[in-house]
Design a protein that fits this description.
This protein is mainly beta. 12% of the residues lie in helices and 39% in strands. It has one domain: Neuraminidase (6 Propeller). The two termini are 41 Å apart.
Length: 398
């Protein structure tokens, strides 16, 4: 039955988007393939660093979300404030209008950057269910309520797209995505989850998802259940949905019915299944993070060569220790956490961590780019644990 639903969905998408029907690619994951010592220079032309200005006013706490563009870097930290920097790391402003008064929000559930308008959209769910628009200098612009309770928002083609996990989907007739205008008018819904209609309520949830712009289209992925096929979807400017990648990750997936159980799911129980944990994509490469029977694996897929390489497979508690080795300037390893553009990806790293890594590495290390290494050594020479993080930016090969 589940297989039939998936096939039916593919047929519908193919009929609605016949020009894309041949674009669907299947990626087979093999957990027995040897680890690849993939280096940054294998997929990347250049590594640059952006030091985020540190001051009493600009100090960033634990980062909850970061959005980076060619011109701005916007960080939401756990204190509930947005800190705005320019692309060189210079501090510009703080947006912190949490409260109960006019033009104030109760919390920041999520935010999106409307780059073409220089606006930040803040979604506040708790006791609010509203979107607030502010300029980059923190001035209130507008606000509106949305029809359905959601968890994430994204700006695309002059509209907002809201994501709902299975925990909230019964409020929106079991659709994953709701589309509204910039003024809050409800326009459409996408990706209905028929399987979830059998469950009146979910007591616990897992909202793993990705929604980001690549080229002229939006890429969408969310966590799969019940041994269904993991699929990466594309959404065009007409808000038509069609499949991009079919992922055969193997193993046994976590059953959706377990999330409808009142008994809390132990972390160890989740790790025993096979689960796509995260996904990132550039023009040429796709980056996957998968838990396979308690082992954490990372893969890089070359879209042009249709080649999949496994970077690391080991214990889950060591998932962030081994990434892409940085042979360009000899600094810390790299693994993306977001896109700046279609061919630029970034991660956050503390300056004192780079400093410690370089000191342990020693002066005899020979980097492919000695000038870049000397520049990096100079940058972190006086780094302290109290400094703001550094944006490590990788310009990927085309």
């Amino acid at each position: 039955m589940k297989k039939n639903i998936y096939i039916l969905l593919l047929i519908i998408c193919s009929c609605q988007n016949s020009e894309f029907k041949d674009d669907l690619k299947t990626i087979e994951f093999n957990y027995n393939m040897p680890d690849e010592n993939l280096k940054i220079s294998d997929i990347c032309n250049q590594i640059t660093y952006v030091e985020l200005e540190t001051s009493d006013l600009s100090l960033v706490g634990n980062v909850t979300k970061i959005v980076a563009s060619e011109d701005y870097i916007i960080i939401l930290d756990k204190t509930g404030k947005l800190v705005v920097f320019n692309s060189n790391g210079k501090f510009l402003n703080i947006i912190n209008h949490q409260g109960r008064g006019p033009n104030e929000y109760t919390e920041i559930t999520d935010f999106s950057f409307l780059e073409e308008d220089g606006l930040i959209a803040i979604y506040s769910r708790v006791n609010d269910r509203s979107v607030y628009l502010y300029s980059l200098d923190g001035k209130y612009v507008d606000d509106f309520k949305i029809k359905y309770e959601s968890e994430n928002l994204y700006n695309f083609n002059n509209n907002f797209i809201f994501y709902n996990s299975h925990f909230f989907r019964n409020q929106s007739n079991y659709y994953s995505l709701n589309i509204t205008s910039r003024q809050g008018k409800h326009i459409n819904q996408l990706m209905r989850k028929e399987l979830e209609t059998s469950y009146p309520f979910f007591y616990q949830y897992d909202k793993k998802n990705k929604l980001f712009k690549l080229g002229d289209e939006l890429v969408f992925w969310e966590k799969g259940f019940d041994n269904g096929v993991d699929t990466i979807w594309k959404i065009n400017k007409k808000f038509e949905v069609y499949p991009k990648y079919k992922l055969n990750i193997g193993g046994e997936k976590f059953p959706l019915s377990r999330y409808a159980d009142k008994n809390k799911i132990p972390f160890r129980e989740k790790l025993e299944k096979t689960d796509l944990m995260n996904y990132y994509e550039s023009n040429k490469y796709v980056f996957f993070e998968i838990i396979n029977e308690s082992k954490f694996c990372r893969f890089v897929y070359d879209k042009k060569e249709t080649n999949l390489k496994r970077i690391y497979e080991g214990k889950t508690e060591k998932q962030f220790e081994i990434m892409l080795n940085n042979d360009l300037d000899g600094g810390t390893s790299f693994w993306p956490i977001g896109n700046i553009s279609d061919d630029k990806m970034f991660m956050l790293i503390q300056g004192y961590e780079i400093k410690d890594f370089l000191e342990r590495q020693g002066e005899d290390f020979v980097a492919k780019n000695p000038v870049a290494r000397q520049k990096l050594l100079k940058m972190v020479k006086n780094s302290k644990i109290s400094d703001n993080p550094i944006l490590m930016v990788a310009t990927l090969k085309e």
